[in-house]
Amino acid sequence: MAVFKLDNVEDLYEIGNVLGSGHFGQVREVRERSTSVLWAGKFLKLKKGAGSRLGLERKSVEKEVEILQGLQHQNIMSIRDVFESRAEVVLIIELIKGGELFDFIAEKENLTETEAIEFMTQILEGVSYMHKKNVGHFDLKPENIMLSDKLAPNPDIKIIDFGMAHRFILGEEYKSLGGTPQYIAPEIINFEPLGTAADMWSIGVITYILLSGLSPFQGDTDEETLRNIVSMSYEFEPHHFSQTSNMAKDFILKLLVKDQSKRMTADECLIHPWIKPLNRTQIAKRNRSSINMKSFKKFNARRKWKMSFNMVSACNRFCRMQLQCKARGPEQPELRDCESDQEDTGTKPASLLRRRLSSNS
Ligand code: ATP
């Protein structure tokens, strides 16, 4: 079982600026007082009681910590320490200074497939490592793929946020409805037993977006998106994929496969000719092909806008709840900040769709 220290984190670390926010708390820059080394602190609110709607179950934080403690890889964010107080847990994690990979790419004028593949290879190496350790991430998406340092000549990819991750135990079935609609595999929506192949589906979606700036299954609503996934309704729209090599399309086609047992694994991806060309002709094809930068920049701008919108909505919802709590009296939960109150909207449409599909069948 993961050991959470009971020391006051602020005695050992000076708490700095906010780096980002998630559903259950904030990530802040922290400086270790004894060494002046910078880290990131992930502050997670804990549920106050069984009936509380706010915060995380301690068990779920323990799961995230135990999984992270078992993973040591250059392309996976590392964890150093964990502190616990009455109301929150603080994970001291590797500080990742380079921001999100998609933001880094969106700042470029152009990017060849060869350059994009350098990043894809690192993502696949991180994923292959975790899958060999029987860990599935289950929330691979652009927001969770960061860069160690964007000013470095060859920045390292860092996969973050193991809040939905699961370690498989031989003989035990695992099902989950969590995830972000655009990126989740059909077996999640259908509430089938899951394996690490669900991550490979998400990598297929991420690659599709990276090359074209289009999201393959995106509908006008989450429900429509989920329906598109279940019915495998996607195509390589010629206008957006005019600069894409056939090898890249083949790579995606072998990931966006409904049958999880037929989907490429991370190791198979690493030897696919798009990632590891077999001859000069294949190398030349990759160099001649590029990502659709105009469309990619548009996708990324929309994505960032949606993230800000969600953050503002969460803040508003939190403020409304706080007012209601105050009106009800002092017994009610008290929170550190707006983000920790954000509802997990990711799971809702999936369960909604599942109910709808089963009631129709
Ligand atoms: P979610 O609600 O998506 O599950 P979460 O509460 O689990 O999120 P994270 O996704 O781990 O939180 O982190 C939230 C944000 O904080 C990230 O999107 C990123 O911008 C920033 N962040 C997370 N980890 C680090 C890190 N190690 N270094 C720098 N910034 C980070």
From TrEMBL:
Which residues of this UniProt protein bind ATP?
A: K42
What InterPro entries does its record include?
Answer: Kinase-like_dom_sf, Prot_kinase_dom, Protein_kinase_ATP_BS, Ser/Thr_kinase_AS
The processes (GO biological process) annotated in the record are: intracellular signal transduction; positive regulation of apoptotic process
Comp. bias intervals (Basic and acidic residues): 329-339
Q: Which GO terms describe its molecular function?
A: ATP binding; protein serine/threonine kinase activity
Keyword Cell inner membrane included in the entry's annotation: no
Keywords in UniProt for this one?
ATP-binding, Kinase, Nucleotide-binding, Serine/threonine-protein kinase, Transferase
**Protein kinase domain residues:** 13-275
Identify its protein family: Belongs to the protein kinase superfamily.
Could you identify this protein by its name?
Protein kinase domain-containing protein
